[in-house]
Design brief:
The protein is an alpha/beta fold. It contains twelve helices and nine strands.
């Protein structure tokens, strides 16, 4: 009889543990009140409702949990369960996730959309194999050179103090291939860096420049898309699988829908932000003719250097280049 009671108690404990609420603690550099945060909070409300409170989210916006390196450490030791991060952070888990950010890979958004339709799933699967659950990629947009002095020719870059994200080897290699000695800073230190002239040039999307207030410190934008950037929400897989399978499905469905909406909206917001930069007095520089050819050549050399260094697998690069070649052949 005593053994039966012990077994029943053990079963009860297991049952109570299995239905215990799980709160995912998520860090992000996105400012509170931004479209990103509004959408993620709305998704969290839906998840809480659909799981009857078994799954919740607690967000730490505005980079309050520290630099990206600090956040990754906190995820490893389970102080955090995940983060909404830029593509540079995603590289730590799956190197080929950086295929979209190869310098000057895409000419326009039409090419981006066609390639993403084929390769987004591969990136998400690669991240999951590495132990991180992603709910889809959200467009950050094209990064443009924004500076305090005009940049027209590629040689102009060598006269500038150019920012690079800390511990982003691909970005560093790219800049060095342009003849630049980049200055690494955490994202949270960039605005101060611009204000104090530690740096005078950043490569960033229009929407990010405005959201982070970097646009207040620059005077020029060179209208050449240097790289395509994105972000995603990552949750540690070991923590994610602790919730019931039906709840996992709910979280995946809701948050995937959230990031699909963010992805679409960011395209519109970037187009509006580019116009807003001009309206706020930032001069748009438009290189032409042979100057653009020189930029494209530099971009090609930079892509080759990044690939040769092993930052991205040759197979993935060849697959994407093959798709782009087919797209461009149809256009000509």
């Amino acid at each position: 009889m005593k053994k039966i009671k012990i077994i029943l108690i053990a079963i009860s404990i297991c049952f109570l543990t299995s239905v215990q609420a799980k709160t995912f603690k998520i860090s992000t550099a996105a400012p509170d009140g931004s479209y990103w945060m509004k959408q993620m909070r709305e998704g969290a409300k839906q998840v809480k409702k659909l799981t009857d409170g078994r799954v919740k989210f607690k967000f730490y916006p505005g980079g309050v949990m520290g630099s990206e390196e600090v956040v990754l450490k906190k995820i490893r030791i389970r102080q955090l369960h995940g983060a909404a991060v830029s593509n540079g952070v995603v590289q730590r888990y799956f190197a080929d996730s950086q295929i979209y950010t190869l310098p000057m890979l895409f000419r326009n958004y039409e090419e981006v959309d066609k390639v993403r339709n084929l390769f987004d799933k591969k990136i998400i699967q690669g991240l999951e194999k590495a132990g991180m659950i992603s709910f889809g990629l959200s467009e950050g947009g094209f990064a443009y050179a924004m500076s305090t002095k005009p940049i027209v020719e590629t040689e102009d870059l060598m006269k500038h103090k150019v920012w690079t994200p800390t511990n982003n080897k691909q970005a560093e290699l790219t800049l060095r291939s342009f003849g630049i000695s980049p200055i690494p800073l955490n994202i949270g230190d960039v605005l101060t860096g611009l204000q104090t002239n530690i740096i005078d040039t950043v490569a960033v999307s229009p929407i990010a420049a405005i959201a982070l207030q970097w646009h207040t410190q620059v005077k020029y934008v060179t209208n050449i898309p240097l790289a395509y950037i994105y972000a995603t929400l990552l949750i540690n897989k070991d923590e994610f699988v602790k919730i019931e399978k039906k709840d996992q499905e709910i979280v995946r469905k809701v948050m995937t829908s959230v990031f699909r909406d963010i992805d679409r909206q960011n395209r519109k917001d970037n187009e509006a932000a580019f116009s807003a930069l001009s309206e706020q007095g930032v001069e748009i520089i438009q290189p032409e003719g042979k100057t653009i050819d020189k930029w494209n050549m530099k971009g090609k050399l930079a892509r080759e250097e990044v690939t040769a260094d092993g930052q991205i697998s040759n197979i993935t690069v060849e697959e994407v280049e093959k798709v782009l070649k087919l797209i461009r052949n149809k256009e000509n």
